[in-house]
Structure formats: structure tokens, C-alpha cells
Write a structure and sequence with these properties.
271 residues; alpha/beta; Rossmann fold; 7-stranded mixed β-sheet; 10 helices; globular
């Protein structure tokens, strides 16, 4: 990465100038601005990557109770929720932005075993409320924790624990880019004279800047005394093509499959 990356900064500042202050409004206005999804669309993380999707499904089949419903947290336009609905008896996609939920429902018309709901999974006790409705559930999260601050990460992790209950399994996939924010922009195709359209839209909306989420961040959110990791591994997170259709984008990532540890009584009854 060269010094030329610093020439990207004025463009970024200019684009972000009119973004709303409140994070929820930023996400909602972002989804309102989306005209097209998929490989040719505006949503940079809306990759149609069969290899990535099959890795998720393989791990879920291996480690999950497949009779439970699954909740897709940060579902966006519902691309992966629909994939999960093909495998699980029921899939619920939740997202902070009502406009994302509207888009997901439109793109999922006619599929009977899934639903979508606008929900802030960083709000305290939301997991308890949803668990009271659905019971134990599996949870899928792709690309949410890396745009949350420390406090929001902690609250979301607690909510996910409540959703899993005793039988559920969590699959988590996040970007884990090792460089600076400017290096990340270059990775996504930014130059001093050009920003790929999906990237420009995200910056203009003022959606939270992504940060690294790898082993250290995972351990901070999911401490070993509360969580049982089943799988942790490096992975690749797909983006829509950013440098032409023959060059689908990828970002280094981190993947984990885990369950909530259950409390052990101080004096368990003998058998």
C-alpha cells in the first residue's frame, strides 16, 4: 500500500458530510438508497458466493440441531436468510433497518417458511424477548460485529446467548482485515480518483466504519467461561465485484461455531 492511499481521505470526508448522526437512521437511509441487489447491485457485501455459502451450511449441518429454527442477525435483503430457509424448518431474518426488512420481504415473496422483522439486536433484553417467542434457536451472523463498538458487541453477544438457550448453535463470520482503514478501502477497489459504486454508497450513508474482528476480538466478546467454541478458523468474506465482473471481491475473515455453556449447579445431585 502506497502513500497515494491518503489522497482518498478528502473524498471520504466529503461523502460523509451529510450522513445522519444516529446509526439506525444511517442504516435505514442506506437501504432506502439501494436500487439493485446481487452481483450487479449496490450492496457491497451482497455476494452470491456458492463456495462461501456451502461452507456455512456444511458447518451448520455438522454442529447444529437441524430441527430448531434459525435466526439470521443482520439479514439485510435476506439473501442468506433464504438459503437458510432451504435447510432449516423456519428462518427469521432480523435487521436494524426497516427498509432492509422491506427489501428482504419483497425479494422473498412466496417462500413460506421464513419471515423478517426489524429488530435492534444491540438493545438489552431483546434476546430474552425473542427467545420467549421462539424457544431455543440456531443463530447465523455474517458481518455485524465488525461494525459495532465494544459496548454494542457485548450486548449483542448476551442477546445471542439468550436466543441459543440450551440446544442452539451460533455460526459467526466477520471480516478480519489486518491493515488500516485506508488499506481496507484500497482492498475494496478505492483509488484517489475512483470509488466503486457499492463502496461509495456505503461511505455516503455514513454506515459505521468496519474494524478488525479476529481471535482477540472474538475472545473479548465470547469468553471461554460462558461459551464453548466448536470451530474457529480463518475464512474469506465475499463482496460483489469491485474491479469488474471477472474479479469478485474478497476480504480476509474470521469464522467461529460455538454454543453457550450451561451453568453447572454448585451441588449437583448424585445419581
Amino acid at each position: 500500500m502506497s502513500w497515494r492511499k491518503f489522497l482518498i481521505i478528502p473524498k471520504v470526508i466529503s461523502l460523509q458530510r451529510r450522513a445522519p448522526r444516529e446509526v439506525g437512521m444511517r442504516w435505514n437511509e442506506y437501504w432506502a438508497s439501494v436500487r439493485q441487489t446481487g452481483a450487479h447491485g449496490d450492496v457491497l457485501w451482497d455476494a452470491d458466493s456458492p463456495r462461501e455459502a456451502q461452507r456455512y451450511l456444511s458447518l451448520l449441518r455438522q454442529h447444529s440441531d437441524m430441527s430448531l429454527p434459525i435466526i439470521d442477525v443482520g439479514c439485510g435483503n435476506g439473501r442468506l436468510t433464504r438459503m437458510l430457509a432451504d435447510t432449516f424448518p423456519f428462518a427469521l431474518g432480523v435487521d436494524l433497518a426497516p427498509n432492509a426488512i422491506t427489501r428482504a420481504a419483497e425479494e422473498s415473496h412466496g417462500i413460506g417458511n421464513l419471515a423478517f422483522r426489524s429488530l435492534d439486536m444491540t438493545a438489552p433484553a431483546v434476546g430474552q424477548q425473542l427467545a420467549a417467542e421462539l424457544g431455543d434457536a440456531n443463530v447465523f451472523v455474517r458481518g455485524v460485529f465488525h461494525v459495532l463498538d465494544r459496548s454494542a458487541r457485548q450486548t449483542m453477544a448476551a442477546n445471542l446467548r439468550d436466543l441459543l438457550g440450551v440446544r442452539g448453535t451460533l455460526l459467526l463470520a466477520e471480516t478480519d482485515f489486518p491493515g488500516s482503514s485506508l488499506d481496507y478501502l484500497e482492498q475494496l477497489g478505492a483509488t484517489p480518483t475512483h470509488l466503486p459504486r457499492p463502496l461509495e454508497r456505503a461511505i455516503a450513508a455514513g454506515i459505521p466504519q468496519p474494524t478488525r474482528f479476529g481471535n482477540a476480538e472474538f475472545a473479548g466478546c465470547f469468553p471461554a467461561d460462558q461459551w464453548q467454541p466448536l470451530v474457529t478458523e480463518a475464512t474469506v468474506i465475499g463482496t460483489v465485484p469491485m474491479r469488474g465482473m471477472d474479479d469478485p471481491g474478497t476480504v480476509p475473515g474470521f469464522l467461529a461455531v460455538l454454543r453457550a455453556r450451561q451453568e453447572v449447579p454448585d451441588n449437583p445431585a448424585s445419581t
